[in-house]
Design a protein that fits this description.
78% helix
Length: 392
């Protein structure tokens, strides 16, 4: 293999910190203690909110908890699935989720939203506050509360939170934690409206509405917001892009604000509410697509740098590595196959190339047993024949 290619691989793995582990216990890091205090305070406040209702509304709490856990697991699986490159350590993902579920929700957002609602009522009247409080409080309070989470993760794992893609994916898990706690709040609130009668029906109806609306909810808002913060802050692997960062943050707040104010914006007109909802969903998904488009080139470039020596050695082709760098490239590469069997084989090779990239990251480019097995898997999928080596 070319020495230059191997050096470039080492530089890339150092810059991205792919494959490194996360250590949660950091007694010499003041942010670790702040995290414990904020999350602990949130957990206590959450318990204080729900424990008085544990007796009479016990059934509602159980049903809401079961549905909330299932929903969180499904969304969590999906977010891990779309983490295409070297996945973040589970410990770091859980740390972000817990921040969103406790500190962001109960320590910051619940009291701050209440204070903002009281202020709006005093300044503009109760009717106006009822219509606009959610849309003009939650986007600023909640996105800030969740955005602090990515800053905390940066302080706890500065080598692991490096790119806008990290911001998108970790932000989604922070938002998922917040969404899980908020769904729990709404579910219990739905049961309480009926004074405890038909608790299960009330909770299921409330949760069903929330799960439907969660398609455009906190994971998406926070993914955009946190990616914007990464662009604003800048890291060794992600040059600062102030315009991009501000655009994503503003988009997140705007989408959240419109989502929470759609009834007020439509002035109660049901048809107009649907129009506003659809428009906000389209705008939100477009913003998310743009965020991934912006983030993709750097990640794709990193993948190419890590696998370039494998191209030179004849294990992989340039087309295969390019396909491993992005969903669109993979689709183009697989569709170019002559038949279904070949398309399936190409998909497996691309997946194996990404697995090899991950194993190389863990081994820091060394020929570990996992790396050797990953290379053997690529060769097996190719039918035992190596790719054409590139002459240098």
């Amino acid at each position: 293999m070319s020495t230059d290619l191997l050096e470039k691989r080492a530089e890339t793995l150092e810059a991205t910190a792919w494959g490194e582990k996360f250590r949660f216990i950091q007694p010499r890091n003041i942010v670790f203690w702040i995290y414990l205090w904020m999350c602990g305070a949130g957990a206590v406040k959450g318990w204080q909110m729900f424990s008085p209702y544990a007796g009479y509304f016990g059934r509602a709490l159980i049903v809401t908890g079961i549905v909330g856990v299932i929903s969180a697991l499904v969304w969590g699986w999906w977010f891990r699935h779309i983490d295409r490159y070297e996945r973040q350590p589970v410990g770091l993902v859980v740390t972000g989720f817990v921040w969103g579920a406790t500190a962001a929700t109960f320590t910051i957002a619940v009291p701050a939203n209440g204070a903002m609602g009281s202020l709006y009522s005093k300044l503009f009247g109760q009717v106006w506050a009822e219509d606009w409080h959610a849309g003009l409080s939650a986007p600023f309070v909640e996105e800030t509360a969740k955005g602090i989470g990515i800053v905390v993760l940066l302080a706890l794992a500065p080598r692991l939170v490096r790119t806008a893609t990290d911001g998108l994916l970790l932000g989604a898990f922070i938002g998922l934690g917040f969404q899980t706690s908020e769904d729990f709040l709404y579910g219990v609130s739905g049961a309480m409206r009926g004074y405890g009668a038909h608790q299960t029906d009330a909770v299921v109806g409330s949760i069903a509405t929330r799960v439907y609306s969660d398609i455009v909810s906190h994971p998406l808002f926070t993914a955009l917001f946190c990616a914007g913060l990464i662009y604003l802050i800048g890291t060794p692997a992600q040059p600062r892009r102030i315009a991009r960062g501000l655009a994503l943050i503003v988009a997140s707040v705007l989408i959240h604000g419109v989502w929470d104010s759609m009834v007020a914006i439509a002035d109660g007109n049901s048809l107009l509410v649907i129009v506003v909802m659809v428009g906000d969903i389209v705008f939100a998904l477009t913003a998310l697509w743009i965020a991934f488009v912006w983030a993709h080139p750097r990640e794709s470039h990193f993948v190419h740098d890590v696998l370039a020596p494998e191209i030179a050695a004849g294990l992989l082709t340039e087309d295969e590595v390019t396909a491993a760098g992005g969903w669109r490239q993979k689709r183009i590469y697989t569709k170019a196959a002559a038949n279904r069997a070949e398309r399936r084989r190409r998909r497996h090779i691309v997946r194996a190339a990404l697995d090899l990239c991950g194993d190389l990251a863990v081994s820091k480019g060394l020929d570990s047993s996992d790396v050797v097995r990953a290379r053997e898997e690529v060769t097996r999928l190719r039918g035992g024949l190596p790719a054409e080596p590139i002459a240098h």
